[in-house]
Amino acid sequence: MTDSCYNSSIFKVTMQLTHKTAIAAAIAGIFGTIVFDLAGLIVMGHWWNVPKLLASKIGIGLPGGVILHYGNGILLAVIFAGLIPLFFGPVWARALQYITLQTIFGVWFFMFPLLDMGALGLEAGSLMPLMTLITHWAYALVVGILYPLLAERLAPAIQFAGVR
Q: Under a CB-based contact definition with an 8 Å cutoff, are residues 161 and 151 in contact?
C-alpha cells in the first residue's frame, strides 16, 4: 500500500491504493474496455480489433487475445488509481491526461512498432494515431467517471471532494 498526496491551492487529493480501491479500478477498467471496444467499432468499423490483432500476432487465439486486452484494461485502470495525485483537475480530466501519455508512449512508440505497424501506427493508415487516441479517450472517460464512484462506495474513507 502506498500513500500519495497532491496539494494545490484549490484542493487536496489523498489517495491510498488498497485492495478495495484496486477492485474499484479493475471494475472501472472492465467497463472502460467495453466502451473502448464500442468506440473501436464506431471509429474503425471492427469489433474486437485489438484482441484479434493480439491473437494473430502472438498466436494465442481470439479467447487469449480477449483475455490480454481486458487484462490490460484492468491493469491500466489500477495503475491510474495509484497515479491519480500526479495529474491535475477533476478525476475524468486526470484519466484523459494519463491515457494520453500511455497512448503516446505505450501504444504509438512501443506497441505499434512491435506489431510491425510502425511508429504511431502509420503503416496501418494515416488516421491510425487519431483513431487510437479517440478509442483510448473513450476508455479514459469511463474509468475517470466510474472509478471515483466505485472507490467511494467500496472504500468510504477515500474521498474525491473537489476533484470530480
A: no
Query: Domain boundaries in the chain?
Result: 17-154
In angstroms, what CA-CA distances link 32 with 10, 108, 125, 136? 28, 20, 25, 9
Confidence of residue 8 (pLDDT cuts 50, 70, 90): very low
Does residue 75 register a pLDDT over 90?
A: yes
Which amino acid is residue 122, in one-letter code? L
Give the predicted TM-score (pTM) of the model: 0.84
Whole-number Cα distances in Å, 147 to 26, 61, 68, 103, 128: 9, 31, 21, 20, 28
Q: Give the 3-state secondary structure of residue 12.
A: strand
Grid look-up 474499484 returns 24
115 Cα distance to chain centroid? 20
